[in-house]
Design brief:
It is a single chain. By secondary structure, the chain is α/β, with parallel strands linked by helices. The protein has one domain (6-116): Vaccinia Virus protein VP39 (Rossmann fold, 3-Layer(aba) Sandwich), CATH 3.40.50.150. The protein contains 4 helices and 4 strands, in the order ααβαβαββ. It has helices at residues 6-26, 30-40, 58-65, 78-90, and strands at residues 48-52, 70-75, 97-101, 114-116. It has a 4-stranded parallel sheet, with helices on one face. α2 packs parallel to α3 (58-65). The protein is globular. The two termini are 23 Å apart. The structure holds S-adenosylmethionine. S-adenosylmethionine binds next to α1 and β2.
């Protein structure tokens, strides 16, 4: 039997607006920015990205802007996935970004060049 993840999804549904508000005001959080810089410091141009626990997709979309070819983000929170899809559409990146609802610990994840967990194992 799988783990009950409904409490996590529910908590991050509630957190999502505040997290997005902070991002719109201050940009990516320090850890996300450091992760983007670390990935981009390698020759990752054209790579595929998988972000598990992608939240509203700020880091995933940043890596697409910096040269990744395509990205998949997976998150337990329906509200986060909805926001991430909207962020991708607003940035005209929907064709290269796929955001899906799911449990990264149990889902069949796509093979990817770069796999990221940012602020997920707390
Ligand atoms: C603190 S937030 C960080 C979101 C994003 N990585 C960021 O830095 O803005 C943690 C996120 O991980 C998601 N999450 C936690 N456990 C997960 C799991 N097993 N599978 C998919 N998503 C998960 C939560 O729903 C939440 O959106």
């Amino acid at each position: 039997m799988g783990m009950d993840t409904s409490g996590i999804a529910c908590c991050f549904n509630e957190e999502s607006n505040k997290m997005l508000e902070d991002y719109r005001k201050d940009g990516l959080a320090d850890t996300s920015l450091a992760t983007a810089d670390a990935v981009a410091s390698k020759d990752f141009s054209g790579s595929s990205i998988l972000e598990v626990g992608c939240g509203f997709g700020g880091l995933t979309l940043e890596l697409l802007r910096r040269g990744a070819s395509k990205a998949v983000g997976i998150d337990l929170s329906p509200r986060m996935v909805e926001l991430a899809r909207k962020m991708a559409a607003d940035a005209a990146l929907s064709e290269r970004a796929e955001f899906e609802l799911g449990d990264g610990a149990a889902a069949d994840l796509p093979k990817s060049d770069v796999v990221i967990l940012d602020g997920v194992l707390c």
